[in-house]
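User: I'm putting together a teaching handout on how multi-component assemblies are represented. Below are the sequence lines for each component of a complex, exactly as they appear in our records. Could you produce the 3D structure of the whole assembly as structure tokens, so the students can see both representations side by side? Please keep the chain order the same as the input.
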Amino acid sequence: MHSSKKIFRFIAVICVFAIAIWGLDFLLYPCTFIRNDLHAVLEEPMDDVYLGTSHGRMNIDPDKVGEITGTKGHVLAVGGEYAIDAYYMTKLMIEKQKPKRIIYEVSPGYFMTEKEEGNNYLLFYHEFPLSMAKLEYFKAALFKTNFRTMLFPWYEYPLDYELGRISKTVFQKWNHNYDPAYLKSSTQEYHENGFIERYPVDTTTMAKDKITSFDEAKIKTTNMEYLDKLVTLCRDNDIEFIAVTTPMPLDSLIEYEEEFKAAWKYFGSFFAERDVQYFNFNVELFQAFPHDLELFTDYDGHMNGDAAREFSTVLGKVFMANRRD
Amino acid sequence: MSLVSNLFVLFVVLTLVIYYIVPKKLQWMVLLFFSYLYYIAGGAKYVFFILFSTIVTYVFALLIQNAHDSENRKKYAKLLLIIGLCCNLGMLGVVKYANFFIENINLLFKANIPGLSILFPLGISFFTFQSSGYLIDVYWKRVKAEKNPFRYALFVSFFPQLLQGPIGRYQPLADQLYVPHAFSFLTISRGAERILWGFCKKMILADWAGCFADAIWGNMDKYNGIMFFGLIFYGIQLYADFSGGMDVVIGIAEMFGITLEENFRRPYFAVSMADFWKRWHMTLGEWMMNYVFYPVSLSKWMVKFGKWSKQKWGRKQGRVVPIALADLIVFFLVGIWHGASWKYVAYGLLNGVIIAFSELMVNQYRNWRTKLNIKGTEKWFVIFAVVRTYIIVNLRWFFDRSDTLTDAFYMIKQAFTHFDPSQLMLISAGRGGTAFVPWALLIIAVGCVIMVTVGYFQEKGYKIRESLEKLPLPVTVGIYILLLVAIGMFGSTATPKGFIYAQF
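Assistant: Of course. Below is the structure of the complete assembly, with chains in the same order as your input.
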């Protein structure tokens, strides 16, 4: 066989592999709310972008904050988001469309663990459009992971879940559909601004959660390194950086008093050293919002929708009262 | 750098591209450069050990060669060999066994000698054995000492085999490492095919079976009714993990045009323990056979012992006794090669005792078979022998997998006193216990059926890979895609594990 024919066949085989891999990703990787969120922050200009964890996602409604501050915002915080993810999402936003302010929601427990392969590891990376930020993110977070993260990102989801959603997935991706209605469930509702409204629960029968306790000696240094890099990145790009810790139920604050005290002290001094405004609603702003259990949907501090909206109004007022012009 | 990581995949692709675009006479240098890069990526601090092993064996091989070539220095060759081996294997001994000795001395004499904080370099058990084999081969004049230190360094450090073997012999490897290799699509596709097969074994079968094995061994009290399942899962995990790793390693080397020695030949089809060891970790077995078994068996003291045993137990038995003793020595070494722990000593000796016993009983077995009119080639007898060997092989895993000797005996006791298969459903398989256990078990079962079927046809002499080549290209590509996709679809959802043998 001529060598040009061989080369053509080789290239054809590679193309078939690439198409198969892309096709499976198209069919099987479900449309997550991060797909909607990243689409929103990269397509529309935003004043405020909220990063952090599930507390940021469920306790802050950017529209309510915006009613007080006059800003447009979107929540990019989510359970499973670590400082490294927040850092590269900020890099991506800087590359595509820079926000004016990053509000980082701090949950101390997240600094005690590390991003773990197979556990929502690709939630953010998968939705990144081709960019320098994506390449850097790959180098930092995916180089050492197993090759399924590169070829089959859908391996993170159970096959029956993927197959059950396949028609919705194809419809949404094919039509570039970002309708939040697809993300509604029986316990919560996703809003276009990224806020997830949790429906109230009967707190009298609520089971106690095991809250990841804070221990300064056991902090994963990578998390702090990326948080530090995130602060610097914002500063270097003229983006205001604010840190927030949302209220916790009083019962939890009492039960884990020592751990929380140590955490507030640690993060308080971390942000103070970097001249970052840090609003902690469990310490100096304790009185600014009630900590009654009925406002929450669990002992871990996730509020119900009404409480979250009220808290967001309070947060907006705190922002206004502490403006640094 | 794990063999299953993105980084490693990209590393191999980059090495291949450079390997085939540079002038052919520079190809071996590319391999040397990337082999050291690979080793450094695993920890720059470890490089000292591989350099030490390389330099010592390189220098002593040259000295031995000079001694051979010079009439009046011939007698020094043996001394040089001993010094060279002491340095090379001594390094392995200190790194791997020093703390074990200290622990036991402390225990025995109630002393308080502090342990050494020594690094455990990647692949040290493999590259020290490979380089020691070379040194002995030079002494035995089987090979000429390599004069170019860089070429020799490549023999010791060739990256695909560095972490978990196979333990190569100098001549077959040198014949391929330093000669030019032209790019061939066939070579690449054959290598890729082998790699895919290996990844399927590792990421589907080994990692799922590992979920169950780890759970059972990690919670011996909770799962005391399914210890035998633990053995079977561990047997599957270990074979699929190690042989899968070998497929990947051999496939990568194949892409560079280099054929490495096989390390497995369907071990679970073995008809005896001796046969099993000819099929399992074959390069270690051959190393032990060449450099320990024969030298021990043919040594003066063993010949004397043989004569004495013939006088004592008669011609037939007396001839077998020295072989049995050499087997015991070999398997004791095989045991401690796996690690510095009493459980490995027990594991090695158990193998040695089984094989030595078989050697001693060989005449008796023959007599029994004659009396029962069994030729040994009957289908039912072969199946019986395979099943019998499989059971014996699995029973030994108690010592290999348990953390300590005490745990091993505890598990044996539980295995024979408790049986409650329903405990299997209590295991938390997959990441954070999220997997549907029957689904995971089904994947393992189907995987085993495929492996056994493939193995059966290979045993029958059917050339599966050659048959694949004859298929039309679209069919072959379809099979490759299916294999690749199977890894994504059916691969274990537990946190990925490294290769077991990479820890040795």
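A couple of points students might notice: Residues 185-264+427-504 of chain B form one domain. Chain B is about 70% helix and 0% strand.
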